Task: inverse folding
């Protein structure tokens, strides 16, 4: 069994200070050993028809479904998720085992 | 400048044979040298409230924005995108420079 990703696409409410949330998320993730890696990004092409208003992507990688479950059910995640969700106008979350169809060159 | 990702979240129309589209996508990507890597996955937790009906994620990684642009404007991509988009009930596309907030252990 390979890696599992927890992916969030979000649109923040107006007036939200994204840097503060990012700081909180980075701090949380750094404390949680079951999170293998964490990357994020902000849409640059701004094609409203395609992004549907979503502006940011947050992607957490886990070594297994067990690690994902242990993260999701952790009280620190629950505490942060409450604050985070309250800052969002829209969100989509998808959890999926990663299938590597074209590996990065070594 | 680091990597750039082209991320698609989709919900397929009823009756679509996903394997056929995946085969086409994998073939396309394997022919396009500017695509550094390609991974995909299917949601496993099925939390409708969070997934909003989206079921699959497709993620292409490029070494630079120039490579992404060259891929997006390539006629082979345009040809495939037409077929692909016609198979979708819903889609969100986000293009973003990757910020690594917690790197995977070496």
Result:
């Amino acid at each position: 069994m390979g890696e599992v990703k927890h992916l969030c696409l979000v649109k923040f409410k107006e007036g939200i200070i994204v840097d503060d949330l990012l700081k909180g998320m980075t701090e949380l993730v750094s404390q949680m050993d079951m999170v293998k890696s964490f990357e994020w990004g902000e849409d640059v092409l701004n094609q409203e028809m395609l992004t549907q208003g979503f502006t940011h992507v947050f992607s957490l990688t886990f070594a297994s479904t067990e690690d994902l479950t242990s993260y999701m059910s952790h009280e620190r995640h629950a505490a942060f998720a409450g604050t985070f969700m309250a800052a969002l106008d829209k969100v989509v979350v998808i959890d999926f085992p990663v299938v590597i169809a074209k590996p990065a060159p070594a």
Remarks:
- Chain B has four helices and five strands.
